[in-house]
Amino acid sequence: MTFELTSQDLINVIFITVGIGVCFLCLLQITVSDHLRKEIRRYFQVFFTTILLYITSHLVRQLLTGIPGDGVHIWLNTMMFIEILNAGFMAFMISVCVLTVAKPPKEREFRLRLVLMVFLVSHILITVMGQFGGFIYYFDEANMYHRASLYLLSNLMPLMMLLYDASLLVKYHKNMSPRVKTAFWIYIIAPLAAMVIQSFTYGIQFIIFSTVGAAVYMFTVIIEDINETYEKQQVITTRLSTELSMATDIQASQLPSLFPAFPMRSEFDLYASMTPAKEVGGDFYDFFLVDDDHIALVMADVSGKGVPAALFMMIARVLIKSHLQNGESPAETLTSVNQQLCEGNDAHLFVTVWIGLLQISTGKGIAVNAGHEHPTLRRADGKYELIIYRHSPAVAALKGVKYKEHEFELHPGDSLFVYTDGVPEATNAKNELLGNERMLDALNKDPDAAPKEVLSNVMDGINEFVKGAEQFDDITMMCLKYNG
User: Fold this and answer.
1) Structural domains in the chain?
2) What's the pLDDT at 435?
3) How far apart are CA 43 and CA 218, in angstroms?
């Protein structure tokens, strides 16, 4: 058995072999590109695999044509079927790409995709019927290829899809960059011209050359466009990262962070911490001396996350501190702040707040809880326990709220622990919450510990429970031990 190739056949084999190599190189580039979105990578992998099937089946058919034998006859028909079928799939894939880049209105996109599916299904039916009916092509007894009377039907649906693409490019040209639009036009016109030529002549398979060349050019342009977009996004991401880092530093600088906070005051020991879930958070704590005999304690949690919550948090903190330092009681402070924050609150954010105002000399205090977590209290030589009582509404949630306050008293050796919901709602990989019981267990691991160690014990308890699971909420805590 020998292969008898004419000069035209040899040129076709060279075209096809080069096309196969180029497609494999494109597939390799797609595979190693680490910044391509998954759907883009998958699309081009399927696209070039379809082209490979198309040109490889054509190559096998080219090499086997004219070789006698029933087995060869079956192979020739199979390769021809794969070739014609993949010609339609190639046209379908490019139409999907054009439709995606065109970005038509949502209500119209569904109808356009439905038209595409009709074209594809019609092509499959024509190919299958042509395979068994012999009205598109046939191989004679010498296994030589011949076009049948209705050969043009094999090109009908791919032609319709290319014309469909052209209409999309004309109608939605403003939604595409000039470079991508040109690449699409080349991909449509080049195979279309080759298809018209080869509908009337055998000769050199220009459609193979034009299809692979146009596909590679289109791929190169789209990848370059994606790379440029990626680089621009990286610049923006870097800038945002820098700005968020600065925002984190600014936010951290606004919260008291020097400990011991009041080294000259032996009547109490105090420690606080905040671990944001994002670069910037919505939680905040605060403590400051209102006068020589009164210390204000604030623990708060703004709804939402990220920069909007952080901005709202800073406004709320400044207002609360300002009102308390002006001599207002906790209830008066939150009533005023609520009114101020409700004005122009288009983002509909709110903040849960616990405020305590402690008289240092006596241990007597006044507190307000605006929708915040229940505080925990440890009496001397006892254990931490939740102090549960009815709360007022969150601040900025409702206009005209009059906040109510209650009295409490600390004795020498007592400790007060306040926190945000990021503590009991810390979540592990099984989507289980830490809960109040586990939080109390961590607090009571060493109930007589200094405030700093108390917070460290709670954080250790959280880390042990979540075991590296992603943190979804800010974790903020404050502990005051009253020495009297």
Assistant:
1) 7-234 (1.20.1070.10), 257-482 (3.60.40.10)
2) 94
3) 13
Cβ atoms of 51 and 226 closer than 8 Å: no
150 close to 199: Cβ distance less than 8 angstroms:
no
**Strands 145-147 and 406-409, how do they pair?**
unpaired
End-to-end CA separation in angstroms for the chain: 107
Helices 153-171 and 178-198 cross at an angle (nearest 10°) of 160
Angle formed by the axes of helices 178-198 and 206-254, nearest 10°? 160
Q: How many helices (H) and strands (E) does the chain have?
A: 11, 12
What integer best gives the mean pLDDT of the chain?
A: 86
CB neighbourhood size of 258 (10 A): 7
pLDDT band (50, 70, 90) for residue 247: low
Rank 94-108, 191-205, 302-316, 438-452 by mean pLDDT and report only the highest.
438-452
The pairing of strands 145-147 and 268-275 is unpaired
Q: Please check whether residue 248 is in contact with residue 276, taking contact to mean a CB–CB distance below 8 angstroms.
A: yes
Whether residue 282 contacts residue 310, with contact meaning beta carbons closer than 8 Å, is answered with yes
Q: From the centroid of its chain, how far is CA 264?
A: 50
pLDDT in tens, 219-228: 778 777 777 7
3-class secondary structure, 300: strand
User: Is pLDDT above 60 for 201?
Assistant: no
Rounded to 5°, the CA angle 102-105-110 comes to: 90
pLDDT at position 40 over 80: no
C-alpha to C-alpha distance for 51 and 93, rounded to whole angstroms = 10
